[in-house]
Write a structure and sequence with these properties.
Oligomer: single chain
Bound molecules: NADP nicotinamide-adenine-dinucleotide phosphate
Strand content: 5-15%
Structural class: alpha/beta
Number of helices: 12
Shape: globular
Distance between the termini: 13 Å
Number of strands: 10
């Protein structure tokens, strides 16, 4: 989902170089040395690593796969970047935090992941910090975008099919548009930023409010939304109740503040024709 938007953004902002995007068909990061050699053979200047096993509940049920892809796969990419003397950029997550802080998380707050996905991504952060000198680690959250199934498309689909939805109201974060993160990643690379940065759209809400806003902006506010607790939903992986990211460091070092999530959402819904006027457009994509 993020990869395809990022590829487009990087290709236009780094038109002075060659920007190549690989998915699992081109490189399987679980294939250790073979994958590392493939990267090194390209003689890259920058390696942006965003491949991951991102199914949070799937990770909980298959810890071995979660660590094989998100931790050991990241070690392979970090080694290859280091041996190529390339700059490494790694995408991480708000789920490294336990959610107990009660105010937006800073880059140097101590992680304490509640679920397997968060632990495997945090282990990935360790490998990047150990192996790839001068690396950039970007933690983001609650992503949606044009490419791939996400919360927005699920809400619209379920709203259309069932007419009523139950959404959790006890987890707070910042819904974030992949296009906005992609632009911020490009800016951070351009400014040769190093270390950890938090990147998310501004303002925050619960999934319930996010769901209600999606339906309202899409002209589907007749769909009823029922707030429920995470406990009642009973998903395999526990999520932090509050994982808003403080993005002041990004602002301080690059001058960039991402727009409020509701503005980005409006843009996404319009750009991707997801409003009630063109209900079939989404299905054609
Ligand atoms: N989505 C979010 O809300 C969120 C929040 C915070 C951070 N992030 C991080 O941001 C990054 C992008 O997330 P996203 O939502 O765009 O993810 P995504 O759509 O699930 O994309 C991840 C990609 O990695 C590929 N992949 C999986 N295993 C691989 C392997 N062994 N070798 C090579 N490629 C492999 C997947 O291929 P298949 O589809 O074929 O498996 C998929 O194309 C990830 O690092 C994620 O951890 C995401």
């Amino acid at each position: 989902m993020l990869g395809r938007d990022l590829l487009g953004v990087l290709q236009s902002s780094f038109s002075d170089g060659e920007v190549i995007g690989w998915d699992i068909e081109e490189i399987d990061i679980q294939k250790g040395e073979e994958a590392a050699t493939k990267i090194e053979n390209l003689r890259p200047g920058i390696v942006v690593h965003i491949a991951a096993y991102t199914d949070v509940d799937g990770c909980e049920l298959d810890e071995k796969k979660a660590f094989a892809v998100n931790a050991e796969g990241t070690r392979v990419v970090a080694l290859a970047a280091s041996r190529s003397q390339a700059k490494m950029v790694y995408l991480s997550t708000d789920y490294v935090f336990n959610g107990n802080k009660g105010e937006p998380y800073l880059e140097n707050d101590s992680p304490d992941p509640l679920n397997v996905y968060g632990r495997s991504k945090w282990r990935g952060e360790h490998y990047v910090q150990e192996l790839a000198k001068g690396a950039l680690i970007i933690r983001t959250q609650w992503l949606y975008g044009r490419y791939g199934k996400n919360f927005v498309t699920s809400v619209l689909q379920e709203g259309r099919e069932k007419g009523a939805l139950s959404i959790v109201n006890d987890q707070t974060g910042s819904p974030t548009y992949t296009v906005d993160v992609a632009k911020a990643i490009s800016t951070l690379i351009r400014s040769d930023a190093q270390g950890i940065f938090h990147v998310a759209n501004s303002d925050s809400c619960t999934w319930f409010t996010f769901g209600q806003t999606i339906l309202k902006l899409s002209g589907m506010d007749k769909v009823s939304v029922i707030p429920i607790s995470s406990e009642k939903l009973g998903r395999p992986a526990v999520r932090p109740s509050y994982s808003v990211l403080n993005c002041e460091k990004l602002k301080k070092e690059t001058g960039l503040t991402l727009r409020p999530w509701s503005e980005a959402l409006k843009d996404y819904l319009t750009t991707c024709h997801l409003t009630i006027d063109q209900p079939d457009d989404r299905q054609r994509r």
